[in-house]
Amino acid sequence: MSGICSNGAVSSFDHRLGEARYEVYVPQDVLPALDAAEAAALARLDLVAGSEEPLVAFSDATAEYDFIVTVAGDLAAVLGGVWQEVSRAADQRAARFRAAVHQRRELYGAIRAVEPAGPVQARLRTDLLRRFEHGGAHLDAAGRDRLAAINARLAELAADFMANLQAADAASGIATHDAAGLPEALVDSARAAAAARGLDGCYVPYSDANATIVLRQAENRQLREAMYRLSVARAAPSNGPVVAEILALRHELAQLLGYPDFVRLRSAGRMLTDPQAFLEELARAYRPQADREHAELLAFARAYTGEQTLELTAADVDNQLDGFYATKLRESLSLARAGAVCVPVATARRVMLDALGELYTVTFTPADAPGWHPDVEAFDLRDASGRHLARIWCDWYVRDGKRPGGWMSGPWLATDGGPHLVSVVTNIPRAGADMGDLRIMWHEFGHAMHFAFTRTRYRLRSPDDGPLDFIEGPSRIMENWPLEPQILRRMGVEERAAAAARAEDRFRTASRKMARMVRPALDLALHRGEDPLPVKQRHLPVPVDPADATAAQFHHIFAGHYGAGHYAYQWASVMDADLFTRFTAEGILNPATGRDYAQKVLSAGAERDPADLIRGFLGRDLNLHAVLARDGVR
Ligand SMILES: [Zn+2]
After folding, report:
1. What's the half-sphere exposure (Cβ side, CA atoms, 13 Å) at 465?
2. What domains appear along the chain, each with residue ranges and CATH number?
């Protein structure tokens, strides 16, 4: 790469394209390297219109630029510190740069003039034209100006939304004298927080984690009710007007770009053209079972409290996992007492890579490629013929300064037959991986394998370039493997703990599903201008709390990328369950099935319509039967 800094020194980004040197990158090199990469990209973009293959030329023009931005973001997430400021600056620059590219009318014209030779080029051309049109390339000058003003204001509003929410969280908490049931560590910190405020007893500051603990474990019902009301009413006064303005501007944006509303703007090019109809079908299927589970829970709660007239409230059931009574019910079934799964990371990783090797007929060998931290280990992935498919850096352990959660990143998609570059990050305690950690490991490796198997000559056809409502299918499906007895045995998990983990996964599935559908349903309702509370009410078996202002906390859609797209998680569960039916029927490590899946579904990246890929693998269209059967819905 051209990485000479403005002061003449050689930049740490100055290396061959298609490599990554995580051990040498330094944050101060990012912006100068971007300057050089931007100049090179602009020169290449100038040649696209006269190129013999404009789709290839356009796809390749920003390869180096995109690599630097991605690496800076990846290192900010795993190292924190000064990388975060540098990455934020790089992201802001990249957003301006990409917006300017997608407004260039001669590039738009050059892509439009391409006569596609086959379905892959036709799909790429359509997707690229949509990017240009959503960037305003087809609008007149007044339209482009208005679009730019809307996008600038939406960026400000997203930042305001998050700042208001964080301010509300920081100012919120519940004082109590009855901390019965809460874990010792929380009680200790709540006593200290009370003392710091000159209060007796305990003060539980608001955080999502603290709220979850209180709602699940606090014996005192008033405390749970107060915490619930706090959590659904947070930021309502400050974010109410922000939400209203975001929704109005998104609607105007959609209409400016020729769509009736924001949901249909965002649905363009996705698998589902009518996500609302999908969610309604799912809710109809799960509701009867959820009602039966609710009746059981109510009977249990009355027996548990000895109050025969007890009624459950939203604080007890508006929860994606378990509220207080569901936690007690689960404990009464001794699911929680069988001993938790705890697997050393080295074992979990060895079993996973061996299993993936068996399933896909590939090998993982340790690579001589240092990472960004001594914990990081790299592997070279090769197919049966010895072809080097990908180099994968893995950063498993939780660490100070590292962003929580798990993710996969693909900073480099090779289009010349060379290896793709991939990183997988999790946050597993050194003591070992529990069931949730194992699922995250396999999930992120699902993304990594999708990326690694992609074969394309167009850099803009990585899995990430595909529809938002497909991308989580090939990762979600991998979460099935660590629950399988065969895999748990290989990891040395005792049969009792394995059985408990599987039973836990099948506990109150319909109720959990209905609770998980609240957010995607609200997302669509809000973007269609509907009142959110009746929509929430349709998913809860008890009256919605009058203080409920869930939209004011819904940062995934108002300060993140999931606006009109939150349903994708529910759709992914349908894909994952249905795709997995072939593995359960033919063997979860059957190499013929694995190769067929890799070839028919994964290797296309974003080149083809995912519905066609899935039809090619299953021999039929997707349907809900598998997810309903897995969730025990009759
Ligand atoms: Zn994912």
Report:
1. 24
2. 27-164+239-267 (no CATH), 183-233 (no CATH), 345-506+567-630 (1.10.1370.40)
